[in-house]
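Exam revision sheet. Question 4 asks you to relate a sequence to its structure. Input first:
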Amino acid sequence: MGRGPSIEARKNASDAQRGKVFTKIIREISVAARKGGGDPASNPALRSAIDKGLGFNMPKDTIERALKKATGELEGVEYEEVRYEGYAPGGVAVIVDCLTDNRVRTVADVRHAFGKFGGNMGTEGSVAFMFKRLGVLSFAPGADEEAITEAAIEAGADDVVVYPDDGSIDVLTAPDGFGAVKAAMQAAGLEPGIAEVTYRADNDVAVEGENAQQVAKLLAWLEDLDDVQNVYSNADLGADAYA
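Answer key, structure tokens:
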């Protein structure tokens, strides 16, 4: 009977994954600071990126160093935002948001991923119209629905969605109202498990069988690319996607 990975091997894999997450967050902090200034109190995008870093236990000195590089106090790499759009198998729409210091490398990596798993890249705007940008505060199953709903309405949230399959709850906001709603929920003692401004599809596309497996592999491959920050899709994947 074979042995599983050693403790050291598992730790190394975990450290590598943590390093990837840190790299993506540092890029996000850098771009937000360059665009809106290095003060998180007056830069909601920066505040959100820093909160994300702290949520992943990123050391504060790592965050400070990223801020100093972005604001010119330390020498650093400049990243630009670039978006790619395309279709995965089964007609699934995919948006790939990147931060890169080399567009040629990034587009080649993204195009390779689409081709490898049976998809194809589209032109700018070819699928983005199917998605809406919004703030999402997610609460785990078992959270107090009544308290969350009351606080969300009081804070000016757009909607509260309770998922009947597990009882989890999403509070939805306009992007520019996200920070205020999040602060109000926290002040009410309601800490979301995940809080982010993201993109959600207007309608999901159900895919099954081999198509679902190819879509799952494509999305995972894209998310693992160093230059990719976020991947959005309208795929509704069944359990067989991960078979």
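Marking note for examiners. The domain at 80-129+203-242 is CATH 3.30.70.980 (Alpha-Beta Plaits).
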